[in-house]
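Hey, quick one: can you model this chain's 3D structure?
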Amino acid sequence: MTNNLLLPYYEHPSARPTEWDAIIAAAPHLYAVVLNPASGPGDHPDEAFVEVAARLRTAGIRTLGYVDTAYARRPHPEVVRDLTRHHDWYATDGAFLDQVASGEAEFTYYRRLATAVSGTLVLNHGTAPHPSYARIADVLVTFEGPWKSYLHLGPPKWRGGTDVRLCHLVYGVPRGADLAVHGADLYCGVPGMGDHPWGTLPHTLEPAQ
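Sure thing. Here's the predicted structure for all 209 residues.
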């Protein structure tokens, strides 16, 4: 069994318990699950997320704390605070940094942040970044967007090293679609669209009705 699914699932465990049960049952397929209690860790520990994080850990699933970096515009101390909260409150195994800049000029900002991450570091650029980012991350998200755009993605644009894993995050994905067509190491495809596509699960993880 391959564990090539990196899953951002931004729903509260108390509101979607059956879906979280399905995620935990899919442990052999999962590279990691992104925890996002409140567009970040929130201002205090969320007991429902504390519990689900412990269940994920018991199942052997890597957890990553979600932190928005606002394309390198968010102050460094704020990002580090959120990273620390994720680690202290939910015992995360690493970080999923979102809205990550892709240019060489912002690399120093992220290189500094990388020193504050304990464990796995995923950078969500949403496009192919400058090759320098491969030096600090374990995973680079080089595509995030709708299925219709993914179909026309063309040949891989990444020209960096091979020591980093590449990930594609795709929404609006129809049932039966093959996300491996563009050769990413990791991926996630969900049926959701609109402002909150990551509140849906991949078709293969949907609980039985």
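One thing worth noting: The chain has a mean pLDDT of 94.
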